[in-house]
Amino acid sequence: MRFSGLRVLREGLTGNKGWSAHWRDAEPKAEYDAIIIGGGGHGLSTAYYLAKEHGLTNIAVLEKGYLGGGNVGRNTTIVRANYFLPGNSEFYSHSLKLWEGLEEELNYNVMHSQRGLINLFHSDGQRDAFARRGNAMINQGDDAVLLDREGVRKHLPYLDFDNARFPIYGGLLHPRGGTARHDAVAWGYARGASDRGVDLIQQCEVTGIDIENGQVRGVQTTRGAIRAKKVGIVVAGRSGQVAAMAGMRLPIESHVLQAFVTEGLKPCIDHVVSFGMGHFYISQSDKGGLVFGGDLDFYASYAARGNLPMAEHVMEAGMALMPMIGKARVLRSWGGIMDMTPDGSPIIDKTETQGLFIDCGWCYGGFKAVPGSGFSFAHLMATGHHQGPAAQYRLDRFRTGKGVMDEEGTGSQHNLH
Amino acid sequence: MRLDCPICGNRDRREFYYQGDAVMLERPAPDAGAAAWDGYLHLRANLAGETRDLWQHEAGCGAWLVVTRNTVTHAIHTVELASAVKEALR
């Protein structure tokens, strides 16, 4: 089934009876060439690129809940390529280019909206840091515009420019940054993978990883044993538990990150606005809800809900930045489980077990990486070699100290990112 | 979330700084090797369930605390002075 304007028109006139399911709800087979554990954004994009780029179609995605039911279904949907360090810069640049072609690629409306992202700054020192970041982005071939105070005012007239604590000096505009419809990305990749023969198996929880003589042989699941010579772990916040099944401890702590959505409002916030000093960022969804969030609660958690101090802090920061949102009523909030690494950068690598691969550590920035991560992880799983900049996302960089990628410059230690 | 500081009593989470896994109490010898130091600094069991971690009553008495709590429910089980736990390790 393909989508087109003509098709939408025809179905609309004939009672929408011609639409079919987007993917097959597959039953597990006894053996596959490769298994992906985790049916979220990264797992589904990995499966898609394994099938499309590498011709590996006898593969399965195992998901303990339902497809796209984790962080890809609950996030603040921001897509950007404003990274600074070599490795990160190229990786996210590539991922953004994949985003820009994604709707054509998948024949799926992921509602990618390049509405522009503005990072605000509030001091001379911060201006220098953002000028440097902008130059790094331009060097990478991406776009960045350093705005002064009046430049920001043209875009965001509703901000409190004279806030006593954090007066606005300007902002770094990343015009190609924006948002996308989070669920649609998972669904689009799922459909593309399924169409190419990938089995998407839901309600199938992996309970063990079979390893013999240092080589992975398959997995145990709640729906029986499944054999495979290659297994990829792509389970975000649950990485610690699944890695433990292979006898591994990871350089990861799972933390809770909260986000909030208001009732639907008329269009008022056109960009993605990030207020780093207050740990606050916001955009407006196409339905009209203001979608905003802040920093981690800063304690290890799998509760999928946060505590009130951080909720209060986020609201206070929002009010300090844009008092106009004060009358909007918060409709819901949620807490996601974030796989935090010591240096804040992800991991895409082999493990010490032959045939066992891992893609994790996306911290609170995994959504924008969905295409790039799947592309790179599929390449690694299919060929055994790293693809491009993802070669820097090594599992052993903390042990060796070589290639630590601390984008924020705060130190490579748990609890600093 | 509230923690029962052994010195100050029951206090709001905002008064406490979170350090991380209580593995940090067991510092390896300087020559213990890269694997031991990697385990101490970076690798974490990252359990979903009962964990022991280090907190500091930063905005109170300043004491370092070992907190046993559940990462799935946020229930706090025990709060002990880290100095006492460290002493028991010796």
From TrEMBL, chain B:
GO biological process, one term: tetrahydrofolate metabolic process
Pfam family, one: SoxD
Alphabetized GO MF terms: sarcosine oxidase activity
Transmembrane segments: none
UniProt cross-references to InterPro entries, sorted A to Z: SoxD, SoxD_sf
Gene3D superfamilies found in the cross-reference section: Folate-binding superfamily
Protein name (database record): Sarcosine oxidase subunit delta
